[in-house]
Amino acid sequence: MQNSNSLLLQEDNFIGISGLIGAGKTTLATELGKIMNLPVYFEPVIENEYLEDFYRDPKRYSFSLQIYLLNTRFRQHQQILWNGKGGIQDRTLYEVLLLIYSHFLIIFVLLCRILFSPKCCSKMETWMRESTRRT
Question: How far, CA to CA in Å, does 28 sit from each of 22, 42, 63, 128?
Fold first, then answer.
């Protein structure tokens, strides 16, 4: 069995960091990259062509910004996998998938309320609440 230090220093580690704005994801990713000698993939800020538009008109550009970020994370994810050397990502695809899943459940409950009887709906809502607690 390998010790924890040798696991940390493996070249093919893929680490994804998640957190709120200002939580320290970039700092953590940078420090881990130095310690583990892994490339770090940051969320684009300066080269983000939608960020300025988003801050000027969030309602209009929020979807475009999210698609841009999703595409960027996907490309980074693929690059980490294909280069075979591992890497650290300060935002990941998995966060987006969890967000999509939670929105799907909300839409499901709303449709349930519209299409089905309250008795059936309460069973569905109970199932939804229980399934989200497990994840």
Answer: 11, 11, 28, 34
Indicate the SS3 state at residue 89: strand
- pLDDT tens digit string along 26-57? 999 999 999 999 999 998 888 888 889 999 99
Does 57 qualify as catalytic in the annotation? no
For 96, residues 6+ apart whose C-beta sits below 8 A from its C-beta are: 66, 70, 73
Q: What's the pTM?
A: 0.64
State the catalytic residue, choosing from 12, 53, 57, 90: 90
Alpha-carbon gap, residue 123 to 135, rounded angstroms: 19
CATH number at residue 71: 3.40.50.300
Please give the single-letter amino acid code of residue 101.
Y
Do 2 and 40 share a domain, yes or no? yes
Domain of 97, in residue numbers: 92-135
Same domain as 109, residue 84: no
